[in-house]
Amino acid sequence: MPLYKTITVNEETSLAIWMVDETEENLWTGIELTPYCQNRFNGMKSELHRKAFLSIRHLLAKYGYTDADLIYDENGKPHLKDGNFISITHSHNFTGIIISSSEHVGIDIEMQRDKILRIAHKFTPFEEYKTLANTAAVVRKLTIVWGAKESLYKIYGHRGVSFLHHINVQDFKFDAYATTAQIIFESNLSNYKIRFLEFEEFTCVYATRDKE
């Protein structure tokens, strides 16, 4: 099974990444979906999406969970029935989950693509990145910032939160593989730790919420 990488964040928190290169038929091995998730699966026209959906169930199995242990709230946010925190992501042929028994968590995987340059002004003050050496470095940094904000949005779970106006990611160096972030929304401030890694021209960012 192509389990690509696992990371132990701390004693209570861990993440796993899957590289999807099996056939859809092979990914069904050992998987049983709830009626709700089977209905979602049946509505997926893209084979890539169906394979990603199944691979995430294999990642759940790594932590002792089945599809029946996963529930979704009215906003589509996933939860585990035992109360542990979970976040899920997929991008092209990579999927990932992060699970914690003690911390609110979020994860995002993104392909590094030049198209992010065209939408950067929608989620971050672009002027902050003009000092970088070349376009490739700008793309890398913007992808990390976007992934951080996606991860934070998944944790926060409130409609109306703006990536540009409410989520602030502190500047960072690539070799630090970490930074911090804040969400300021409706006069409430919350703080987060951000960590990231890059592989195969993809970026994975994961976030944990600071305990109050």
* N- and C-termini, Cα separation: 39 Å
SS summary, helix count:
5
Provide the low-confidence segments as ranges: none
C-alpha-based Rg, rounded = 17 Å
Major beta sheet, specifics?
A: 5 strands, antiparallel
Helical content stands at 25-40%
Mean pLDDT: 92
Which H/E pattern describes the elements?
EEHHHEEEEEHHEEEE
By DSSP, the count of extended strands is 11
Beta-strand content estimate: 25-35%
Number of spatially distinct domains:
2
Strand order of the largest sheet: 7-11-10-9-8
In short:
The chain is α+β, with helices and mostly antiparallel strands.
What features would you describe in this structure?
The chain has two domains: 3-101, 4'-phosphopantetheinyl transferase domain (Ribosomal Protein L22, Chain A), CATH 3.90.470; 108-210, no CATH class. Helix content is 25%, strand content 34%. The chain has five helices and eleven strands. It has a five-stranded antiparallel sheet, with helices on one face. The chain has a four-stranded antiparallel sheet with strand order 1-2-6-5, with helices on both faces. It has a two-stranded antiparallel ribbon with strand order 3-4. Strand 8 (167-169) and strand 9 form a beta hairpin. 33% of the residues are buried.
